[in-house]
Amino acid sequence: MIAAKVIDNIWATRKAESLIGLKFMLVEVLGGIDAGRLMIAADTIGAGIGERVVVCTGSSARKMMNQDDVPVDAAIVGIIDEDCTF
Fold first, then answer.
1. CA-to-CA distance for 73 and 43, rounded, in angstroms?
2. Is residue 9 predicted with pLDDT exceeding 80?
3. Is the pTM here over 0.85, yes or no?
């Protein structure tokens, strides 16, 4: 799992049918060798811009969609409490 900060919404009016209804967010990785890396993550919990979040990747992200055929490689699965520091 990766700690990240939500930077912005991603809007895609045309996308694969299996992605319809999913909300996408641009996140920036916090800490580690990938610090500063930007990635797009499906938002499963309603995170907002500026929040620090927990992101899972790979097959774990697809399991959050309850479908194995969804082409998602990253999913926001938690919001980090404000009193946590990195």
1. 12
2. yes
3. yes
